[in-house]
Write a structure and sequence with these properties.
The protein is an alpha+beta fold. Helix content is 40%, strand content 15%. The protein contains 7 helices and 6 strands. The strands form 2 sheets. Strands 1-2-3-6 form a 4-stranded antiparallel beta sheet, with no helix packed on it. Strands 4-5 form a two-stranded antiparallel ribbon. The protein is elongated.
Length: 171
Amino acid sequence: MSDSKFIKATPGPKSSVIYETKDGRKFCYSKGNWTWRNNNPGNLVPGEVSKRNGAIGKAGGFAVFPDYESGHKAHLDCLRTTYKNSDLEDLIQAYAPEEDDNDTENYVQFLRKKTGVKGDKKVKDFTKDEFEKLWKAIEQMEGQKAGEIKECTEKRPEKKKEESQKLKIIG
């Protein structure tokens, strides 16, 4: 793959994501799931948090980041800022609502089991260990199923030898 960092991402065919580098090379992330294709382990939607953490596009309704580290940093930022005053139940009702086909009750129980947090303790009051367990549990619940990466840079047609020679004569 290219050493260049991805600078732009756009939706591609069949739920794929097309990443573009500064030098114009394109890579198609297909199969897998949205968290993997979008480098977005928390499945964050586009907004202020994703923007300030370097999102480079949007696909499938979710923000796209240039790499996993940027998406992970945005996820932590989101939990620390957007949901700091939420307990686990309030967090999940907003983060993964039922109207988006999420089983919020199961999600909350999963987080309680993984973090050991009971009651209405706010995210901002979590210990360092509880907070780490929280983001790891959310990333586990959101899933990360790898797919395929293929270069999909469009090849420019080569000029015919005759056209190339004419340019030399004229120019």
